[in-house]
Design a protein that fits this description.
Length: 355
């Protein structure tokens, strides 16, 4: 799994006045982690000009820099200092997010922060601290999942660097994520993770399609992206099956039976998906640990409103500035009105074929 989990901007300064020592300690942890990321930055131009640096690193940073310019010039995304510097953190992930849910519900345990609003996870720059938090929540009866995060956005508060953790992907994944993260700086609605992530996911995917088309490349992107789409669809279908089972069951025993059946079906469906991939098992590690509700939480956040944003983009004639303005207008609406508007966009004729 790649960048499907992100930590939004959580600023130490925003913690001023909070009384809880544990809360202050957590914000101090975030402040230290963010400072380490910023302190590790170096200008990409300097790396490109140094023939002693790794040639493959220079090639990929050059590609990212070209895509960064494309994002501002063609996709209507912010023209600022983000992703013009590089930081090698010396670890595989920049943060680890902890998701938690009850045994018989897909309702996430939410955490609320100044600026970012309420989100369905809590992020840590230390894997050990993330695991300690997961154990604490398990002791309270929650099911938990820890997801490593290769990229996140500070929503424009800082000039976010390109990270070594992002270079583990192929070129298409890297550029899609760059567009995605810049979208968070363009429009961000505190407290509505599904809206924010669906919007940014659409921008990333559509931006990559246009980038590839401009270079005479096939629109569908890399094989890795195609496989990921199949994987995400599989987990999203399981979420829907579980939600229906929890809602219709008469009691907790029936809910547990529905849960067991849904996860058994998931195992069968993944085996069939792998067979279609000629046995490629890139997601085996995800399935190697027991499935639970918390492991499924991210998959609704990033795809829930994709069709709506595709319809909105089509309605605005594929004009990026108009599209971003329309998204900002949606974000300004009250929650109920915004929900109705997104539902109407999703139901628009032809939206199933959008994108």
């Amino acid at each position: 799994m790649r960048r499907r989990w992100r930590l939004p901007a959580l600023l130490l300064a925003a913690a001023a006045g909070l009384a809880s020592c544990s809360t202050l300690n957590y914000y101090a942890h975030l402040g230290r982690g963010q400072w380490q990321v910023l302190n590790a930055r170096e200008p990409i131009d300097r790396i490109l000009a140094d023939p002693q640096r790794d040639p493959e690193l220079r090639r990929r940073l050059s590609l990212a820099l070209a895509a960064r310019d494309y994002a501002s010039q063609r996709l209507g995304l912010p023209a600022n200092g983000s992703y013009r510097r590089y930081a090698d953190l010396g670890r595989p992930y920049v943060v680890w997010n902890v998701f938690a849910a009850p045994e018989l519900s897909l309702q996430p345990l939410e955490h609320c922060f100044p600026i970012a609003g309420c989100v369905a996870y809590r992020g840590y720059y230390s894997e050990a601290e993330a695991r300690a938090e997961a154990l604490r929540l398990q002791a309270q009866g929650y099911e938990t999942h820890i997801g490593g995060v290769p990229a996140y956005s500070t929503l424009g508060w800082f000039d976010d660097p390109l990270l070594n953790t992002m270079l583990r992907w192929d070129d298409d994944r890297l550029l899609e994520t760059l567009f995605h993260e810049l979208a968070h700086q363009q429009v961000y609605l505190p407290g509505d993770t599904a809206f924010n992530e669906s919007y940014a996911s659409f921008v990333g995917e559509q931006g990559l399609r246009e980038w590839r088309a401009a270079r005479g490349q096939p629109a569908e992107g890399s094989l890795a992206l195609q496989r990921e789409a199949g994987f995400v669809a599989l987990l999203s279908a399981t979420r829907e099956r579980l939600e229906a089972g929890y809602a219709s069951a008469a009691d907790d025993d029936a809910r547990r039976a529905a849960k067991a059946a849904a996860f058994a079906q998931l195992a069968q469906d993944y085996a069939a998906l792998k067979a279609g991939w000629n046995g490629w098992g890139g997601y085996d590690r995800f399935f190697a640990t027991p499935m639970n509700n918390a492991k499924l939480l991210p998959f609704a956040l990033y795809n829930q409103h994709l069709a709506a944003f595709a319809a909105l983009f089509a309605r605005e004639g594929g004009d990026w500035p108009r599209f971003h303005a329309a998204v900002a207008a949606l974000a300004a609406q009250p929650a109920e009105a915004r929900g109705r508007a997104l539902a109407a966009l999703t139901a628009a004729p032809g939206v199933a074929d959008a994108g």
